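Internal QA ticket QA-208
Title: Verify multi-chain structure generation after dependency bump
Assignee: T.L.

Test input:
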Amino acid sequence: MSYDRAITVFSPDGHLFQVEYAMEAVRRGSTAVGVRGSDCVVLAVERRALAKLQDPRTIRKIVTVDDRCTLAFAGLTADARVLLQKTRVEAQTYRLTCEDAPSMEYLARFIARTQQKYTQRGGVRPFGIATLLAGFSDPEHGEGEGKPVLYQTDPAGTHSSWKAQVIGGRNSKSLREFLEKGYEDGMKEKEAVKLAVQALLEVVDSGAKNMEVCVIRRNETITMEEKDLDEVVKEIESEAEEGKKGGATAASGDE
Amino acid sequence: MMASIGSDILDIGTRRSAHQQDQDNTHGIVPTCMRLGEPGAFDLPNVADPAAFCRSNFASASGNKDSGQEIKFAKGTTTLAFKFNEGIIVSVDSRSTMGAYIASGTVKKVIEINPFLLGTMAGGAADCSFWERNLGMQCRLYELRNKKRISVAAASKLLANTMNSYRGYGLSMGTMVTGWDETGPQLYYVDNDGTRLHGNLFSVGSGSTYAYGILDTFYRPDLTVEEAIDLGKRAIYHATHRDAYSGGINNLYHVTKDGWKQIHAIDVNDMHYEYVEEKKNAMQD
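Actual output:
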């Protein structure tokens, strides 16, 4: 008895197969890493090898949803485009009705709610994407400024806030462990960028042209230039070399 | 118990109303328009042009012209609100008139939407109180969904959008939505055409012209709280003194960052004698 046809049907052991297959589609997508620092959020995505004749500027995996909200996704690009469009319209509608910018939490909740809607209707399939939303939250009562936040949503329609997260790619589990080991509270921009790039280098061939890194600061969002990225990569690689060499000498010294 | 208007006036068809009554397990306790989640759906006259029907039969509700019909809508009033350095003063009268008949001298024309938002009532009493209570419900839902209080700008926008969607249906409402939110004290005027204006000083109603005279002469942003309360009181007094459709009791509220507080409810007749005394004393000096 196949329970994976209509997604509105549960299987006997409580699975929604279409949702799980959607998560598999996410795993086939290219990796995206998000790291939350003390004063910024870093989004780094893997840029899969492009065909020679393709214009790289038309493939953007890190996109703006609203003035202060940036999104990276993993999974089916077409689904992402549709979901992104809905979210952009929602952000503008909120601005029109409430005369204020929507909070990050609101947008993450909206994306999650939309993804969930498509798991509970007949005749539609879930969105095959997971997203990472980066930005700054509204200031809490009494405080002057908001804090950096990183939200993740998945095809099931859940959303949660993370200090560092990775979506997409076959090795997301081991990358998450890597991030757990390397993450420290209160990282400044430089360290956050380094951690994100380090994580990405585990799955990507070395080189700045295989990744795209975006830094979301309080007042601006910048995409790192290739030469700056190259420097970070070089620094990481030289440290890794020293680590190996240091290990070797220590071993020889321990006789 | 819902007071139902006979089905010969609001002809939705007896079969349909009977069908509705069967389906309705809240049987007459909750009218359709108040059911949770359903935005005020109400029966319209079963005619080709409901707006024109309302205009010709219930006039002065959806326009300035008086068609000389039997039932005239309650409309005369004076309400005012102004922003100053120490917050916002909201001052209203309490008379409700139907033509030349004073229907009530004790109407509450300030609606407490929530502890930080106030709305005033001018125009059709039913329209004002219904839609402002509806606004209160929407504000509460916003709070529950977003874990923070709604801003005055957003609240007034919700009301204005509602008014816009019922444009041409003969609603009559001229209200001021005011409160203190994260951006400070805010004051908006919203009316039944969907007009929404942000400002520091507004007065709405048949007595507003008299109130504006006093307000425009003595208003300053740096008034003290006592001076502002006195100004709000005086402006209503002068309006009620000259406008036949305003009178009764002056209800005055002060909005601060901790919310609104009712300051007083003084009969305007007592105020008259107080001001007569004042003038006499001033002349003798």
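Spot checks passed. The radius of gyration of chain A is 20 Å.
Status: verified.
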